[in-house]
Every structure is written in structure tokens, then in C-alpha cells.
Amino acid sequence: MTKFIIKRVLISAVLLFVIMFCIYLIMRFMPNSYIETVARQLSQKPGSRPYTEWLALLNVQYGMDKDVFSGFIFWFKDAMTGNFGDSWYFTVPVIDKFKEVIWNSFFLSAITMILELVIAIPLGVLAARKQYSVTDYTITVVALIGISLPSFFTASLLQYAFALKLDWLPLSGMVDPRTTAAPDSFAYLLDVGYHYILPILTLVIISIGGLMRYTRTNMLEVLNSDYIRTARAKGLSEKRVINYHAFRNTLIPIVTIVGGMLPGLFGGAMITETIFELKGIGYTSFLALINGDIPFTMFYLTFMAILTLLGTLIADILYAVVDPRVRVN
Amino acid sequence: MSKNTFDWRKAVEEEINKPSEAPAPEQETSEQIALDDTQRIKVLSPGRLVFKRFIRSKLAITGSIILILMFVFCFLGAAFTPYKESDVFHVYKYQNADYGVAQEKIDYDKYTIEGAVINDTVNAYVTSKANEMIASGLTSIEIADPSGEGLYVLCELGENVFELRKSDKNQIVIYNTSGGTFTFSLSEFDTPEFRNAVENLASTTKSFTLGGQTFLVNYASKQFTIYIMSEYQPVMLATKYVFHNYDTANVLTDDYKIQVLSAIYDTGVFTYGGKNYIVTPDDEAFIIKQQIDGEYQDYVMLMTFSAQRSTGEDSLSIDYKLNLLDLIETMESQHLTNLEFTFGDETFNLYRADLSFRIQQVQELYLIDIFNAPSGEHPLGTDSNGMDVLTRIMYGGRISLMIGFVVVFFEVFIGVILGGIAGYFGGWIDNLLMRLVDLFNCLPFFPILIMLGAVFDKLNVDSYMRLLYLMIAMGIMGWPGVARLVRGQILSLREQEFMLAAEASGLSTRRKIFKHLVPNVMPQLIVNATMSLGYVILTESTLSFLGLGAKYPIATWGQIINGVKDSYSLLHYTYIWIPVGLLICLAVIAFNFVGDGLRDAFDPKMKR
Predict the structure, then answer these.
(1) What's the rounded Cα separation, in Å, for the pair B281 and B268?
(2) Which of A253, B506, B513, B521 matches a 20 to 30 Å C-alpha distance to A220?
(3) How many domains does chain A have?
(4) CATH number for the domain that contains residue A121
(5) Tens digit of pLDDT for each residue in A108-147?
(6) Which residue of A has its CA nearest to B588?
(7) pLDDT digit string (tens) for B111-152?
(8) Among the three residues A18, A52, A80, which one is the final residue of a domain in this structure?
């Protein structure tokens, strides 16, 4: 088991190195005219550095004057120590900006995920138990609609209904701009929570379908297996068959996939955060991406790649931990 | 062993004998058919089997119908709509537009006589001094010049006309007391009496008189400077009268106006530019008549009332102005704030605004018909560019759906080749390709597309080119999923007997992979591609919504919504974004339904 984990971690480390190289390549092969346009626009801001200084700064950060490989090693060393340079758009160190916004995203995603688990898993199990019933069809259709809804449309619909027409919830933002509450007070927290309702609702609607279908498919597979037939043949009550024999086995793939989703909690929800103007990592990165903030973009791409890698790694390891049969290989 | 032995000879014999045993005529089937009769079991080709299972699924049928309708709507609908993709609609709108301004003059228009120099401070005092004169009844008043260069007097020539006169201070001589020297500027004063008078001046003297003339004295640093004041000369005319031309094409020069103003309270006759003019008083106004061929014709009217177009030009006819004057008097006497009137065959609205009166006219303006609410002509209204939304949706749907197919084609093309190679060869090739797949899976797909959009934006890439780049990028990002699927299937397929047969018949590797292995992956591929179609539409519309995908003038569904995403549009232009959003949802849902149905149809084992 330890050997398996070490092997997986090592593979992931090598993969990370290669991915970072790819990301570095993306940056290196960005059209020069693009970088120059961005630098020129930056230098026109009041109190900004001159145009040449911005380009020089880029050279220092990414070793642009070196060849691709030594330039990459130069940047890699810096990046590994957490030094991603200063953000162009936010004019603070990238890491500082990241620390400032990451928890907003985390809480948004964490609450969404808890709701998702609480709603999707029981409904998925229910749909599998009553396969081809009205309940099953309803759940399947709703799940498919959830998957198919574009996040911006869902967000717009919710904004239209709850913020503009009914005026129950705020349209966008993190807090009421007129609030007088101190940033640590309970009233402030309550205000933030109030602003989080619509984004969370949006995310739950669009993400619930996938997990629901996944649970249903796996539950169906388990319910059709021989040991469930044995359990029923033995005369166990239906409740016991479902809750003890079937559900526990369904949990194997679910735990695996949910484990893989954990790092994603830090990834933010770019579209939703942008539409609701929540200052999370998604919205921040969106601003950085469209404004040509190269240092922040580089950091964000690296960060997302690490999260995905971690997700796969956790899923693989969890799969081995949860299901003893895998451990043999 | 013996139990499982299959007597193939017997089986073949049975197989051969069967057709002859079967009753040929159809009408007899009901009576003669046997239980083990092959005719009884309807044999269907695999394709038809899948089709039969597919149409049994309600969701899949619903999805297919939605898709067919959508394609008909987008591809055939555009042929029936009377408009084109980029038709911009205009509309005549009646709007109350500002037409003119009228007011009783309260300030003075000033006309400076050519060549005259007037001190700025004095100039600024003219209006208040004139009002002071009217209040006090004086006919002339002095205006002090802070620079001391001249003397100014404002005289009333008659009602509403004032003349500013100036007396210049001319320097005669500078007398230096220490050397006793004279420096004359005006030599005609250089007489012994004058010199004598100057030599005897005390330093405190301000003026002296000699020979009936008054001289001014200034003493500073042992020097006397002697001045004489010139005669008063007119330098400026100030009046409340406004010149109204009978012929609006005429332009009056300041010089002409000065002539008129000097003449009206004087002889009433003057000549300007070789033409004779006569002034006739008329009520509270004056009419200047021009002599043409011996006859006097109305040329200019002077009134203390001004009326001009809102643009500032004086193009209203004199009749219109007089009519306006009457109307304003009516309004004043009846204390009205608003009055509608017609002049010629046009209708105007006159209303009071502070001290002036404003005239509005209902004008027909030719405007681009933006954000027009749904009507019979435009069932879904018009968008921010004045284009018909329904037509845009049809053309946009073409692009949105086409993008899906192009991207999926790219994906499948790359994925099948690389997945097939990896699965067939295995070993290090497989390992390498699969690590490549891992790599692509870890690259953040959506942020890179957004970055690409931002780069295109900054570089001003052409709309059609960026759409092409976008499709290629999405294809490149999407192939790993397909490759993984194909490889997984081929890994198990290549161990099967038919591959052994293919090997034995000495087929080429390419033929083995693409003729024998890949077709067996087709079911999964078709399901995957169908689901991908929905996903690509989703991605493209999200990108376009963010303004980073397709751009105007290309219409795609996301691009149409992009035009109405602020909270005002969200609330007011629901007729644009809700139908388009629903179409996107429907398309994606339909693709998912069909994909789901296909999966179940291809793989009946799943339907336990």
C-alpha cells in the first residue's frame, strides 16, 4: 500500500514538472505584440512604471532572456518557493492576492459541495431503487436539465427572479456596499451569507445532476449484483438490503469521486463568481486573464493544474484504500 | 467434456434443412408455424436492433424531436424569415425635440467701433451703468478707468441704445527738473509760454489751464509729465435691440448695426454700402427700410425680443417671431406655462423655462430601432444593434450547432488515431500517449480558452478567424477523453478471436486498427460524441457570453446573450435573453437525452 502511494505520488510529481513546463511554454509563446500591448496599456496608468520597465520585470520573473529550458528552470525554482512575482492588474504580490481571496471561494465551494452530497446521493439511491418509475424519470430528467443548464443562464434566471423581480436577495457583490458592520462582526458575516445564497443555489443546481446520475448508475450496478440477490434470498428486509448491503458498496466509487473533488474546492467557480462579482479566486483570475495580468495568470494555471493532479491522486489512493480488491495490483 | 461437446455436423445439417421445412406461403403461417421455427423469430440487423431499442426510450425520442425541430428552425427557418442575419432596422420616431428659444432681452449686445480700444473693466461695467442710468434718469454717466489711460462716458442715445464715448489721454511733454530738459511728444505745444508755465509748476499740482486749455500734470521721480485730454469719441454701442432680418439669408455686419443704432435716434436716415436706408418707428420697435429702385422695402426689424433656433442660428422668419411675441404676451397675461400653437402647418409647443421661453416641435426622427419590444414585425424584438432577434437566433443557432460538429469532429479524429495506436501497440507507446492524455487532462481548459480570447481581443483578430482558432483549440483540448475511451476498448478487443483471425489473414496494421478495431468502438464513440456536442455548445456559449468567443457580426447564441447581461437589460430585455438561454438549454438537454438513449440502445446490458 505504501509502495503504491509512493509510486503514485512520484508519477504525479513528474507530471507536475512537465505540466509546469507546458504552462511556461504557453507563456513563452504568447505573441510578443500581445505582451507589448498589455505593458503599454499598463504604463499609461497614472503613477505606473514606464513601458520598458514592465517588460524588464517580465524578463526577471520568467527568464525571458534565457533559452526556453534554462528560463523554465529559473522560473520553476522561484515558483516552487511560492514566489510568483507581483500581479500586474492588482499591483500586489500574486501570493498576497491569492491569500486574500481564496477563502471566499473555499467557503462557497464547500457549502455547495455539502448541499450537493446531501441532496444528490439520497436522490440517486432513490432513483436506482425505483428504476423506471415516475420518480426515477423525474430525477433523471431533472439531473440532465441541471447538467445542461449553462451556469450563466442559471445565474441570470436566478438574478432575474430573486433579485430583480422579487427583490428578496442581493443582485451581486460580497456585502452590502452601505453596510456599517465591522468586518469581523456577526452582522457582517450574516450579510456575506445573505449574498452567498444565490451563487450557492446556482452552483448546486448545475452540479447536482452529475453526482445524482453517478450514484444512480453505481447503485443500479450494485443492486443487480449477485450478493444483493443472495441477501434478498436470505430473507433480509428490503431496508437492510438497501442500507447495509447495497448502499455501502455504492459508497466505494462515490467516496472515490468525492475525494477527487476535494482539491477542487479551492479552484473557485469562475463563471458564477464573475456573474455575482464574488471576490473569490475565480473572479480574481477572470479579471487577471482578461486584463493580460501575466504573473497572476501563470500562477492560476499552475494552481489549477496542481489541484487537478491532486484530485486524481486522491481519487486513485482512496480507491485503493476503500476497495481492498484494488490493493492486490 | 462430453457434456459440452458440440456436434457441429448435426447443427449444420439442421441449418441446411430448416428452410425447406419452413412453410413458404405467408397466409398459412398462423396455422402451420412451429415453436422452434426461425420464421417466428424476427431477425433484425444489429443496426435495426439498436434503432428499435432507441425509439422505445421516451427521453431519447423527446431529445431527437427537439433536435430535429431545432435544426429545421435554424437551417430552414432562416429561409422563411424575411430578414437577413445583419439587417439593421430603422424606425421613424416622433420625439419632442428642442426647436427654438425666445426671450425678452435683459442684457445688452455690444458693438465696438472698428479700431477702438476699450479697457476691459470699463467694458464689463457698461451693462450695470446703463441700468443705473435708467433707474436714476441720468442721460450720461462717467465710467472710471482703473488704468487711467482715458476717460469714459456712457450716454443714452434713446431708449435701449447707449453709446460709450472715450477721451484719450495724450502725452505732450516730459520735463526733467534736475537737468531742466524738455522732451516733447506733441511739438505743436512747444511755445515759450507753455515752457514757462511748466517750469513754474509745483510738485503737488494736478492740472493747470493755459490759453483756455486744461492740461493734466503727473509728477514722479523729479519728472513732470504733461497730458492733454482729447475730444470724446464714440467707441462702442450697447443695445437691447435685436436685429431681425426680413430675409433670413441676410447676414448683418457689426458695422452696419452700429450705423443703424447711431441713426435711429438721430436723423433716421443713413447710407451704408451705397444703399439708402430709412428708419421708421413701429410700436416698441423700429423697422429699417432699404431703398431699392426708389422704393423703400422692409429690411430689418429691431425689437428687444430675441428668438432663435436651439442650434443657435437665427433662421426663424420674422412672421414666426412676431407670432411668438404675441403668444408670449398671451401667456404672460393669462399666466400660462405651456401653450401649443401651429404655424404654417407645423405644431409647436411653447413653454416657460426660467426667464426664457422654449419651443419644442414634435419631430419625426429616423433612428436605429434598438431594443424594440416584440411585435408582429419582430416576434422577439430587436437587439442593441437594431437587428431582428428571431433572425439572429436562427443564424446564431447555425453557428452554435455547427461549432459543436466541427469541434467534435476534431476531437474524434485526433482521439481515435492516438487512442487506437496506444491501445493496439501497448507498451511504451501506450505509456507515452497515456501520459500525454494525463497532461492534457491536468491543463486548465477553460482558463486557457479565456486567455486565448483575451489575446485575440488585444490583437484585434478578425471575427471569423477567431472562431476558427476557437474551434481548433476546443478540439485539441477535447481529444484526450476520446483517446482514453478508444484505448480502453481496444485493449480488451484486441485479445478477442476475430483479431486473431485478422492477424492470421495477414492484414496490415492500419487495416487492423481502423477496419476491425475502431468500428467495434463505434457505439461508445457515438454516445461520447453526442454528449460532447452538448458540452461544446455549452462551452462556446459561455465563452461568447463572457465576450471572449464569437464576436459581432457573427451571431451565436452566447453572443446574443452577451449583448444583454447588465442588470438593466436583464430586467427589461427578457424577450432577448430568456428565449436564447432556453434554446441553449434545450439543445444541450436534447443532445444529452439522445446520448443517453443511444448508450442504452447500444448496450442493452445496462438496462437490467
Answers:
(1) 9
(2) B521
(3) 2
(4) 1.10.3720.10
(5) 999 999 999 999 999 999 998 888 889 988 998 888 888 8
(6) A148
(7) 888 888 888 888 888 888 888 888 888 888 888 888 777 788
(8) A80
